[in-house]
Design brief:
Largest sheet: 5 strands, mixed, barrel
Strand content: 5-15%
CATH class of the largest domain: Mainly Alpha
Number of strands: 9
Structural class: alpha+beta
Mean pLDDT: 89
Shape: rod-shaped
CATH superfamily of the largest domain: Tetratricopeptide repeat domain
Number of domains: 4
Distance between the termini: 88 Å
CATH architecture of the largest domain: Alpha Horseshoe
Strand order of the largest sheet: 1-2-3-5-4
CATH topology of the largest domain: Serine Threonine Protein Phosphatase 5, Tetratricopeptide repeat
Radius of gyration: 39 Å
């Protein structure tokens, strides 16, 4: 209703100057002086509702009057002044039948239809859109009243355009066409910065569109300030609740929101030039993956970070490009198949021919498989489930979702081979400890030396036996 009053003020302002042009005419210029007297009597009626009724009576009595259009326009403005926008809309519809390009009537029809649509009457929106589009098309041709300065007329036209853009912004917002909603609301808010409805909906268009426009947080704060200024605390509370949820999603916390709101409520009238930089955005996992590759040499990334980039390959074109760089780095690191990689993992399950393991901390904590190893030769004895080991092999492929590396030609790294006490005549003991550990080799001269595992100990011809664990 507050915005309808604003529309009434816009119409009244534009008519005030037109009225001065009419008043400049004399009674003697009319063929029928009674026509002039009737119009002026209606115009000078102080009560708005009675003035509107008097203008309608004038139209009925003098349907061919040169003042007919002005009488329609005065009736529209008077009904708004009387807080009866529905009656104003009826008059606007009648005026458009005889003057389809009448800017004041189009503005009324556009906003009245928007208001009804916002109240649940979706059928009213198409006519409002049509009126708004036509209004913007004919506005450049609107004739300036003689008594109106160029500056004042430009201001009135800007406000009229604001009505049309606000209606089209609302329609775009309902259709989730956030780009067009932003474009139209930017114009309507520029025309009337204190219009709570448009300022808030402009913020929504910015915060719901993709990508999110951080300027929406400033306009949301501005809408809260407007709501508080007009004592609409319920609206201020609802807006604050909504914006906080979007702010947390964008930044990762509410840090800085209360300070921003306090600044705008205190009187800040426009966002500072560096505003968006003041709210650093928390990156989504796919975005973080892209930044990881942009800021680092893919070949130097850890296995966990390789997995982080590759799992988001299909999120966006940028993610696909980042994944391609990482995979090429992996291929190059393996020299096209001539070199193998060693990866520390946690064993999730094991058979003689295959080990399923977890690489990343998240996967290890949740016992989620993100590496499947096809062994180069049957494995015996098997590593225990949950054991921390290192595996050597070729990363030959991967699946993005759910993420899994495929390793071929897999073998246990030397430090992870089974260890158990025994003579070196039997380098493959039948028992092993839960954690694969180094071996202590006892040489022929009685000295001891720690080896990476039982096999490497027995590979030394001077070692006659070995025991589990490093030498004491």
């Amino acid at each position: 209703m507050a915005v309808m009053r604003w529309l009434g003020l816009v119409l009244s302002l534009s008519l005030a100057f037109a009225t001065s042009d009419i008043c400049a005419q004399t009674r003697n210029t009319f063929q029928n002086p009674a026509e002039y007297d009737s119009y002026m009597a209606a115009l000078n009626t102080r009560d708005a509702a009675k003035r509107a009724t008097a203008m309608e009576i004038f139209i009925a009595w003098y349907p061919g009057s040169v003042l007919r259009i002005e009488a329609f326009e005065q009736a529209i403005a008077a009904w708004h002044a009387a807080s009866q926008p529905a009656k104003a809309d009826v008059i606007a519809a009648r005026l458009l039948q005889i003057d389809p390009d009448n800017v004041r009537a189009l503005a009324n029809r556009a906003y009245a239809g928007r208001t009804r649509a916002a109240s649940g009457d979706a059928a009213a929106l198409p006519a409002a859109i049509e009126a708004a589009e036509r209004g913007l098309a004919v506005l450049p041709k609107w004739q300036k009243p003689v008594s109106l300065t160029d500056e004042a007329f430009a201001r009135v036209k800007e406000q009229m355009a604001g009505v049309f853009h606000g209606t089209l912004g609302f329609a775009a917002l309902q259709a989730k066409d956030y780009d067009n909603a932003r474009r139209h609301y930017r114009q309507s808010v520029a025309a009337e910065p204190d219009n709570l409805q448009d300022v808030y909906q402009f913020a929504v268009a910015q915060l719901e569109g993709t990508p999110l426009d951080a300027f929406g947080f400033w306009y949301a704060a501005r809408s809260i300030a407007i709501a508080r200024a007009v004592k609409n605390q319920a609206a201020a509370t609802d807006i604050d609740r909504y914006v906080r949820s979007r702010y947390r999603l964008y930044r990762g916390s509410e840090e800085g929101w209360d300070e921003l709101l306090a600044r705008v409520v205190a009187g800040e009238r426009a966002p500072p030039a560096n505003f968006t930089k003041s709210i650093p955005r928390a990156l989504t996992p796919p975005e973080a993956a892209v930044v990881l590759v942009e800021e680092n040499d893919p070949a130097t990334l850890s296995f966990a970070n390789w997995a982080r980039v590759l799992r988001h390959r299909d999120a966006t074109p940028a993610n696909k490009a980042a994944a391609e760089k990482v995979w090429q780095a992996i291929v190059n690191k393996q020299k096209g198949g001539g070199a193998r990689l060693k990866i520390p993992v946690k064993v999730i399950s094991a058979t003689p021919d295959r080990i399923e393991a977890a690489i990343t901390d998240e996967s290890q904590a949740g016992n989620v498989v993100d590496l499947v190893v096809m062994m180069a030769r049957p494995l015996s004895p098997l590593p225990a489930v949950g054991a921390a080991i290192s595996i050597v092999g070729m990363l030959s492929d991967y699946r993005a979702q759910p993420f899994t590396f495929l390793m071929t030609r897999g073998e246990l790294a030397p430090e992870s081979l089974p260890v158990a006490g025994g003579p070196c005549a039997d380098p493959r003991p039948q028992m092993c400890t839960r954690d694969y550990r180094p071996a202590c080799g006892i040489r022929r001269d009685g000295s001891r030396k720690t080896y990476g595992n039982a096999c490497s100990a027995c590979a030394d011809p001077d070692v006659v036996t070995q025991g589990a664990g490093a030498c004491p």
